[in-house]
Amino acid sequence: MAALWRGAVFLRLLRRNNQVLCRRCKPSWRSAAVAASVAGGLCAVPFAQVPSLTHESLIRRAASLVTDSSSTFLSQTTLALIDAITEYSKAVQTLVTLQKRYLASLGKLSQAEEDSVWQVMIGQRAEVNDRQEECKRFEAVWVSALRLCETAAEAAYTSGAEHASITMQTNIQVARSQAEEARKFSRDADKKLLEAKALEVQASAQRTSALEQSEEDVPEAYLRED
Question: What is the end-to-end Cα distance of the chain in Å, rounded?
């Protein structure tokens, strides 16, 4: 009997230990199940949803973006160059007109009026110089933009983006044509500037002569020192 009682007690203790172990192990199994489900979910995420995104396709897209931005740069610099040449031509024409009017009015204006017109001509010459420098600056930027577009067109063609390359080459041809038309006005303005310089020499000589004549006409009594 004593042996049976000890055996029953031993079985009860064994059951209790098993129950305790099961309760302790349940969270671990549950955590493991959660971790397994999370891991399975991550593995199921379709990272390669667009199989067409190969290195070649990405390079072609990048080349197209480069040609688009280069085209914008070229069109902006072309517009700036055209505007600069237009303003330069206007400034030269205004200077020539002022000089011709000045020469035509010599002897008809008072000394104060002639001085006033002369100062306006000096200011206009400064305006011409500023506009000319602006043309040179935008011309240099335009040439850089043109080279950039040529390189972008070549890169697009090499990478397989033929359409972007063709579009870029078309934009280059248009920009060159527009710039050449603007340069015609610039060359005309340069010729007029030479005319303006010749008129300036003539106007300066006549102005000096008029000033000397006016000094000679001053009565000797006003020239004497007290």
Answer: 160
Task: Split the chain (226 residues) into runs of 10 and give each run's mean pLDDT.
Answer: 42 47 43 40 43 83 93 96 94 89 81 86 93 95 96 93 94 94 87 81 72 57 45
pTM of the full predicted structure?
0.65
Which long-range contacts does 210-219 make (Cβ < 8 Å, 24+ apart)? 210/106, 210/107, 210/114, 214/111
Q: Is 122 exposed, middle or buried (0-12, 13-18, 19+ CB in 10 A)?
A: exposed
Angstrom CA distances, 176 to 81, 82, 112, 216, stand at 11, 11, 49, 59
Whether residue 120 contacts residue 163, with contact meaning beta carbons closer than 8 Å, is answered with: no
Alpha-carbon distance values, 13 to 3, 9, 22, 26, 167 (Å): 15, 6, 14, 20, 87
Instruction: Say what the pLDDT of residue 210 is.
Output: 64
Whether 77 contacts 138, CB under 8 Å:
yes
CA triple 7-12-17, angle to 5 deg: 125
* Angle (nearest 5°) at CA 98 between 92 and 103: 130
pLDDT attached to residue 221? 44
